């Protein structure tokens, strides 16, 4: 899930992060309440709350999921040689990055497999030192296997929830699992972002990663978090507190 996609859908739905988190929590709680009690009034109340929160959840997250699917299938990227500075950085971090792809109309970066993907908008905005800071940040996610840890962390609980909700409508189950995933992954993803920012400080320096973050945000919405990233102002504070 890319930060630029999160920002786009936040502007679309105009519902802040904490309100979205409350909607997710209410949906998960109402499904659990419905399946846990056979009291008619409890079932009636929880079913009403469940349907309302499910509709709000779809309204909040459908644009994000739709854009993620479009992004996955349409943006293959343009092959480019990996800049020498990033090649040296990856070797210094004891990683193997074989190449680079530039993604049109994207203001973000990520690593997939052994390829470094970077949006063309990011390339236009950032200096090489800032690009190195972004690269160090993304390389650290791979170095510490953050995606794998997320799967190990979330999968057992989601399996338990699935079997505890097995008699519910499959659509409601899917929505509930997605809602739980939004709640449960946010803290660990914020922690991973903090660790990756500290790695960028260690390998490139504070000024480079701070100015890169501000360029990514265009100095707007610095206090608004997302499900995948803490607010930029908090990240800047963590960076200032970190040691080179």
What does this protein structure show overall?
70% of the residues lie in helices and 7% in strands. It has 244 residues and is α+β, with helices and mostly antiparallel strands. It has one domain (3-241). A 4-stranded mixed β-sheet has the order 1-2-4-3. A hairpin with a 2-residue loop joins strand 3 and strand 4 (115-119). The longest helix is centred in the N-terminal third of the chain and has 35 residues, at 40-74. The relative contact order is 0.13. The mean pLDDT is 88.
Question: Features of this protein?
Answer:
244 residues, alpha+beta, 7% strand, elongated
Work out the helix count.
10
Residue windows where pLDDT falls under 50 for at least 5 positions = none
Measured by DSSP, the beta-strand proportion falls in 5-15%
Overall form:
elongated
Give a quick account of the main beta sheet: strands, pairing sense, barrel closure: 4 strands, mixed
Decide which structural class fits the backbone: alpha+beta
The largest beta-sheet arranges its strands as 1-2-4-3
Mean pLDDT: 88
Give the beta-strand count.
4
Work out the helicity level: over 70%
Radius of gyration: 20 Å
End-to-end distance: 29 Å
Whole-number count of domains:
1
> H/E series, N to C?
HHHEHEEEHHHHHH
